[in-house]
User: Fold this.
Amino acid sequence: MIGKGLIFLSKALVNSVELIYLHETQLTMSQMKNISFDGLQARLDEQLKYPSLFLFKFIAPLEKAQELVRIFAANPVTTKSSRHGNYISVTAELEMQSTEEIIAIYRAAARIEGVILL
Assistant:
């Protein structure tokens, strides 16, 4: 399966971490699962002090929305359907205790077929 689109990583609300560009291409699902988050981890470690609020944004095919929302457990999320209803955006603002917690959420989301990390 090919995942199409721009793959970006989120920015933190606190400390105004700039949007970090990861990759612009078509990626197979196995390639998405093997994305290295080392660069992101280093940047977050440099720029954030924990605990810190962190804004996660993802886009998913509508049929994968519940799987994506489950990553956030009981934490509140905001969802919005695309104009034609084929995709849904999922946004969550969470207080994170470490960079490892942030990376764990990105890794979990990357395992879901069709999810785009923003």
User: Anything to note?
Assistant: Residues 1-30 have pLDDT under 50 and may be disordered. The beta strands are 2-3, 6-9, 20-24, 27-28, 52-61, 78-81, 87-96, 116-117. The domain at 2-117 is CATH 3.30.70.1150 (Alpha-Beta Plaits). Helices lie at 29-33, 38-47, 65-70, 99-110.
